[in-house]
Amino acid sequence: MKKYLIEDLVTFDAHLMTLTHLDQTTELTTNESELLQMVLDGMATKAAVIQQVWGSKGLVVTDSSYHQLVRSVRSRLEEHGISGALIKTLPRQGLKFLGSAQALTDAPVPAAERGLADLDEAADEASRGPLAQHEPPSAPPAGRARNWRRTLRFVERALLAGLVVWVGLVTWKMISINDRFPWLTGHFGIHTHAHVSPRSAGLKLLASIGVRPGPGERVYEISRNGDRWLAICAGARHSSDERCTTYSTRDLTTS
């Protein structure tokens, strides 16, 4: 498709169907572009225009469509400062463009314009070059796998911390029991113990077999795996001199 320079002002691109002058560009319809190209190429009869614009597409139109299209093309030229009267209707001949129109299809780019274009391209490359050379490599994006690993590590640490606390509490409890009942932990593996109050049911069970704690003696209730014992301890508390006598509550309740 051709390009035309109209009146040394406006560039008509038949391929893009545009009129361009400085920074102003007007888009043409297909019919407007075809008519303008026919007029710029030479004399265009009404019959030829109707056949080219509509007949080749299988359309049948009246003369009013033809005249309306001519007025529309003239108006487009006037938008860019070119008189629409330059498209002249000659009786019994057709349409003729009376202005200057230069085909630019095979025209070489002027040396001055080519030089400016080369300078612009070189400037663009120079501006991009240092940036491309000195731009640090972008850090790889954190993927889902990294997030999952981070989450798993957090969960593992939380579970480990909880386990350490639990083990510490159990160890402290067992140490406390071992300090108080070294002989019991060695023989029975004590799980829980409690000091028996003077009014507890444990003392009543001991009384049922005629056993009563003496002065200075202490009574403890001990449980392990569902079994329960009553221990009467004498001697210095929390020392190796402490001696205890145990009674199974199961035996006491069946006696």
From TrEMBL:
Residues 122-144 are annotated as: Disordered. GO terms for molecular function: DNA binding. Gene3D superfamilies: Winged helix-like DNA-binding domain superfamily/Winged helix DNA-binding domain (1.10.10.10). It comes from the Bacteria. SUPFAM superfamilies: C-terminal effector domain of the bipartite response regulators (SSF46894). One of its GO terms (biological process) is regulation of DNA-templated transcription. This is Transcriptional regulator, putative.
